[in-house]
Amino acid sequence: MGEPYDLVVRSRRTVTPEGERPLAVAVRGGVIAALCPYDEPPAAEESADLGDLPLLPGLVDSHVHVNEPGRTHWEGFATATRAAAAGGVTTIVDMPLNSLPPTVDVAALEVKRKAAEGRCHVDTGFWGGAIPGNLADLRPLHEAGVMGVKCFLSPSGVDEFPSLDRDGLRAALAEVAAFDGLLIAHAEDPGLLSDPGGPAYDDFLRSRPQEAERRAVEQVIALAAETGARAHIVHVSAAACVEPLRAARAAGVRVTAETCPHYLTLAAEQVTGPAYKCCPPIREAANRDALWQALADGVLMGIVSDHSPSTPDLKVPDFAAAWGGISSLQVGLPAVWTAARARGHGLADVARWMAEGPARLAGLPHKGAIREGDDADLVAFDPDAEFTVDVATLHHRNPVSPYHGARLAGVVHTTWLRGTPVDFARPRGRLLTRGAR
């Protein structure tokens, strides 16, 4: 018979890359060791029978601004990773800016690792940064295990992380191509951005038009094609970007792109205050429909939070002056599920967009799916239960979110990290390097 497994979790609705199946997921040593028939579960030290409650793979959020060290009063590893686990996210990848120092060389990466050590409730990886003057640091960052390097093509909002011009972007892409790394880009053309000219959301929206996003995306595509580099566009908000991305992929350019829950579930017509401000901006409802279609068509590979919190005092009523960033790490799954279900998508689609796609992007081959050999990162999820979002009950550090008061479907019951339920009294998250588990 052999030794019993450490854990077996059964569900008649286990969400795998092949779709929903009745399965018993057997775990040994934190890894999915076997997928067995639901009605024939193997012996285990511990077991859970979810019945008809779906079992999802732990989500992978490859776009999170943790901000620690330096701006830990905005967010920190302990609070961000609690929010992640409560929302069914078992792996995050931290962005290189908004912390001090920014992660633009190996020394800064080590400072950030030290800040994260022992504080993470989920597994955590790191992006490096590409800024003017640090071209020689990109390969060492890659060799130190970052998932890739991020650049801005327009002002980032913080002075210590300046943007790259066209020549700087070309040089960074050529350097990344030399070691077959990955460059991810905030793509807005600064020449097409303008002063909002007023405090209202309509003023802010007009100041960051779709054309600015599309032009910058086209620049990344052209230079990726020229250099042969692998590139990725973060947080696509504009439907105008879809066709250039579609054409580039058809032509064999190594470019991918993501979008975010707020671009898929919110609309400019419903913006009521600065909690909704982000860059690029939340656009109109018709634009949102085109992003959903791009996901369905595979032009956009995934959905990630771009969780970018700040202290409440920075979210001033003047949209021109307010900090741009959405806090949604804990509610991304129910927000997306509520909208996806209404559009006829299933849980397997959501898992592909929010777990498998981001894991593949970040170079984490053992994350993002329920399959033999992968980490046993699992989520018991009730897709029919509804709740009203109350920011006071969310785990991220500052009580600001545009989802406050929203009625959403989908409740996380249990999150397992490598086969063990997350316990907020005992941080068990590992610090990840690219390709490793």
From TrEMBL:
<comment type="function">
    <text>Catalyzes the reversible cyclization of carbamoyl aspartate to dihydroorotate.</text>
</comment>
<comment type="subunit">
    <text>Homotetramer.</text>
</comment>
<comment type="similarity">
    <text>Belongs to the metallo-dependent hydrolases superfamily. Allantoinase family.</text>
</comment>
<dbReference type="InterPro" id="IPR017593">
    <property type="entry name" value="Allantoinase"/>
</dbReference>
<comment type="similarity">
    <text>Belongs to the metallo-dependent hydrolases superfamily. DHOase family. Class I DHOase subfamily.</text>
</comment>
<dbReference type="InterPro" id="IPR002195">
    <property type="entry name" value="Dihydroorotase_CS"/>
</dbReference>
<dbReference type="GO" id="GO:0000256">
    <property type="term" value="P:allantoin catabolic process"/>
</dbReference>
<comment type="pathway">
    <text>Nitrogen metabolism; (S)-allantoin degradation; allantoate from (S)-allantoin: step 1/1.</text>
</comment>
<dbReference type="InterPro" id="IPR011059">
    <property type="entry name" value="Metal-dep_hydrolase_composite"/>
</dbReference>
<keyword id="KW-0378">Hydrolase</keyword>
<dbReference type="InterPro" id="IPR032466">
    <property type="entry name" value="Metal_Hydrolase"/>
</dbReference>
<keyword id="KW-0862">Zinc</keyword>
<dbReference type="GO" id="GO:0004038">
    <property type="term" value="F:allantoinase activity"/>
</dbReference>
<dbReference type="GO" id="GO:0005737">
    <property type="term" value="C:cytoplasm"/>
</dbReference>
<dbReference type="Pfam" id="PF01979">
    <property type="entry name" value="Amidohydro_1"/>
</dbReference>
<keyword id="KW-0479">Metal-binding</keyword>
<dbReference type="GO" id="GO:0050897">
    <property type="term" value="F:cobalt ion binding"/>
</dbReference>
<keyword id="KW-0659">Purine metabolism</keyword>
<dbReference type="GO" id="GO:0006145">
    <property type="term" value="P:purine nucleobase catabolic process"/>
</dbReference>
<dbReference type="GO" id="GO:0008270">
    <property type="term" value="F:zinc ion binding"/>
</dbReference>
<dbReference type="InterPro" id="IPR050138">
    <property type="entry name" value="DHOase/Allantoinase_Hydrolase"/>
</dbReference>
<protein>
    <recommendedName>
        <fullName>allantoinase</fullName>
        <ecNumber>3.5.2.5</ecNumber>
    </recommendedName>
</protein>
<feature type="domain" description="Amidohydrolase-related">
    <location>
        <begin position="55"/>
        <end position="421"/>
    </location>
</feature>
<dbReference type="InterPro" id="IPR006680">
    <property type="entry name" value="Amidohydro-rel"/>
</dbReference>
